Protein: DSD1 family PLP-dependent enzyme
Amino acid sequence: MAHLSDLDTPAAVIDIRRMQRNIERMQRRMDELGVAFRPHVKTSKSMPVVRAQLAAGAKGITVSTLKEAEFFFSEGVSDILYAVGMTARKLPQALALRRRGCDLRILTDNADSARAIADFGRERGEVFDVLIEIDTDGHRSGIKPDEPALLEVATALADGGMRIAGVLTHAGSSYDLDTPAAQQAMAEQERAGCVHAAERLRAAGFSCPIVSVGSTPTALAARHLEGVTEVRAGVYVFFDLVMANAGACSTDELALSVLATVIGHQVEKGWAIVDAGWMAMSRDRGTQKQKKDYGYGQACTLDGTVLPGYLLTGANQEHGILSREGERDPNIAERLPIGTLLRILPNHACATGAQYPAYQALSENAQVEPWSRLHGW
Amino acid sequence: MAHLSDLDTPAAVIDIRRMQRNIERMQRRMDELGVAFRPHVKTSKSMPVVRAQLAAGAKGITVSTLKEAEFFFSEGVSDILYAVGMTARKLPQALALRRRGCDLRILTDNADSARAIADFGRERGEVFDVLIEIDTDGHRSGIKPDEPALLEVATALADGGMRIAGVLTHAGSSYDLDTPAAQQAMAEQERAGCVHAAERLRAAGFSCPIVSVGSTPTALAARHLEGVTEVRAGVYVFFDLVMANAGACSTDELALSVLATVIGHQVEKGWAIVDAGWMAMSRDRGTQKQKKDYGYGQACTLDGTVLPGYLLTGANQEHGILSREGERDPNIAERLPIGTLLRILPNHACATGAQYPAYQALSENAQVEPWSRLHGW
Structure:
């Protein structure tokens, strides 16, 4: 077995102990709230991570692409929700998955797509399980809880012979909030809007068994989830600097970091150059407008201890510029000599992970093993 | 053979005709300037692209990782320059490549690494060909042309029995300039600084056969390249919106685009939702501080015609928000109905390409074939 210091750099390191704690924290919270938990696996796209989530009590998974659905189904997960609006051109792929035995649920937020699903399903003799997407915070897709379109979509599905599996919402604007009170209020807005949509459907005579809500901040902030049947969250499994700024975690809970080597200095500028640039970190600058801007990442020692004030302040494709924020460190070359191994905490775990074909999973006995992950569509 | 409209979305489409023109334009310019051209393949990481560059007259390639070197060497390219500062931990990988017959040149900008290379080379009986990195614009790594460190590094290499292959610089700050005069001045600064460093080495009795400069903007802007032996450039092969803002190309010359499908609308906001989010475009917001901010990309029709004013103004992982800049389009749902296929021009071709396991190469007869590309380290 390899150790961290044996790895080629850059490498994406998962601290398994921290990941496990994050998984248990979220599952415990969901158990307390009395809802099922369906993790969004777009964050890790890696089977060992998903296996740990399911072992802790998760019921099924959420995916962001049909390729994820195909991959995790081939790995034995069959309860899968594809949480991006379905279009006609993706229906054959969804049908093929269901025909192979995958319990795939799909999503729509408009009558055109609902009719396309129904037409395709009828032609092929398939009754799709379809959730209707609700917009509870105005940040992306979905039908507002009070809009007439909700019943039009339900009618198009039901008249076309499809099963209405329920309603789904994602209060993604919770990422922009950074106080417990604001997160709680957003969690309640997400819950109330989605439950209201479910009630409108039921009042109109439609079935609506699933009421699915969630984002990492609202899942952790919710006081109660009355009327909700399941919660989805993704990034909680690793957390990241955006989530630390949002108050969802501390930097000591971040389970993903990028291992990098110091390859040079520009002493007069106080720079150490590392071999982790934007290709290794991703171009995500999610903390740029938050209360603390971490540049391209927060530097830590090899054992994961934060080096306060030392940030990846610049990035080219394979070069990162590491410097002290605020004032130049004249001793950067002595502090971080050529060859020093560092770990850099990322702004956004979903974006950083996507840059790697595999994670390097670090166990408590300080050994690492590769955990492959999915890439592309 | 497939056509564009058969592809799953999102997909990264290369317009082969445009790519070929970009390749020929750059090679012609290099021929006129009387220098060898060594394209930086970090942009495409794809063999059919590199094959077209070599066929047009390129002499060898530049890589940003040793994995690229291994891959392209296995595909038959042996003249390879690894243009990121070498560290001790990567030397065994470099040695293995040379032992297999790869004519790999490596780079350093400090005496510690130079000694590490020399010590390792001597121990293994290998004479590495090493270039010394020169900093001509203060944007990243390298030794300033006048610094005493230049001769220290050369001494460490020569005393250690290594071959000094030459000097190399990259005026990456040219990306931030947007007038022909400023680009020309930067090209001359890059050339003069690198040539000066070469002359200092020669005056001190060291050999310095290669004088290597380049970036896409300076390569296109240079008036003459006296004293330079080779030029490197990468992104010119596809160009992108950052390069269009820098004045290096027009948007009609961009050879890479992301094929996307309209999956929904928020009519009251004037939004079309597409299935190309930041995972499909990358998080690169390189035009944010340029003269025109394209958001996450410029929308085009399926045939590649720019839709003026229609930009990807927001992006989640698998959702893009497409809207008219400036004012809401009340007819967005009629203009871009559900199912519409669009092509989105990216800010930064190197970052967007990296999100895909393969490109879809579109030929003049409107057929597409997959061109695989390298991922990770």
Observations:
- The domain at 251-372 of chain B is CATH 2.40.37.20 (Lyase, Ornithine Decarboxylase; Chain A, domain 1).
- The CA atoms of residues 24 and 200 of chain B lie 35 Å apart.
- The two ends of chain B are 32 Å apart (CA to CA).
- Chain B is about 30% helix and 25% strand.
